[in-house]
């Protein structure tokens, strides 16, 4: 954890200031939060518990189940039924989870589909269809074989796409698939 803090404060912050010419220190972009989520298409207790256990395995923290506020007729989900599970990581869990995702999970995936939100220039979304991204999870294939795609969403405090590209490339995340 201290590695990523030291790298950001002593190297990356100065690189950002030199490249983009900020006038206030508060303008320098940083990682604000990480959102991990599993959306559900239908109500299946085995999938729900497997998704909850997978997120707890990745983060090491309790996960909440999202419920619907109104009925979703096209998905055949009643009001109040589970529609997914997610966890929002901030503060002290942010850096440890970021290190685990970027340096342990993403290198095990051959091609990572990275999408950039067209509305916000500070939101990066990664969807992984392969859920067995670490060797430890291969031992639990029986429990996690039917879980849906996991969504990793990174929220930065950037104002332009160039700043986001620079931040991601400095953290060694491949930015070739991002649109200009």
CATH architecture of the domain at 33-149: 2-Layer Sandwich
Q: So what's the CATH class of the domain at 33-149?
A: Alpha Beta
Give the radius of gyration: 18 Å
Spatial order of the strands in the main sheet?
A: 2-3-1-6-5-4
Sequence of secondary-structure elements: HEHEEHEEHHEH
How many β strands by DSSP?
6
Strand percent estimate: 15-25%
Percent range for helical residues? 25-40%
Number of helices: 6
Category by helix and strand content: alpha+beta
**CATH topology category name of the domain at 33-149:** 50s Ribosomal Protein L5, Chain: A
Main sheet overview:
6 strands, antiparallel
**First-last Cα distance:** 32 Å
What does the model show?
- The chain has 180 residues and is of the alpha+beta class.
- It has a domain at 33-149: Ribosomal protein L5 (50s Ribosomal Protein L5, Chain: A).
- It has six helices and six strands, in the order H-E-H-E-E-H-E-E-H-H-E-H.
- It has a six-stranded antiparallel sheet with strand order 2-3-1-6-5-4.
């Amino acid at each position: 954890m201290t590695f990523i803090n030291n790298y950001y404060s002593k190297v990356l912050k100065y690189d950002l200031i030199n490249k983009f010419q900020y006038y206030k220190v508060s303008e320098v972009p940083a990682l604000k939060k990480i959102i991990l989520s599993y959306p559900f298409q239908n109500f299946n207790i085995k999938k729900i518990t497997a998704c909850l256990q997978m997120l707890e395995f990745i983060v090491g923290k309790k996960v909440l189940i999202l419920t619907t506020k109104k009925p979703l007729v096209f998905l055949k989900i009643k009001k109040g039924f589970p529609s997914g599970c997610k966890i929002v990581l901030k503060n002290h869990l942010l850096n440890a989870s970021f290190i685990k995702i970027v340096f342990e999970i993403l290198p095990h995936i051959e091609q990572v589909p990275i999408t950039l939100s067209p509305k916000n220039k500070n939101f990066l979304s990664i969807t992984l269809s392969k859920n067995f991204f670490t060797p430890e999870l291969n031992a639990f294939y029986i429990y996690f074989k039917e879980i849906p795609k996991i969504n990793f969403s990174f929220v930065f405090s950037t104002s332009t796409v160039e700043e986001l590209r620079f931040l991601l490339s400095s953290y060694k995340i491949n930015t070739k698939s991002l649109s200009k």
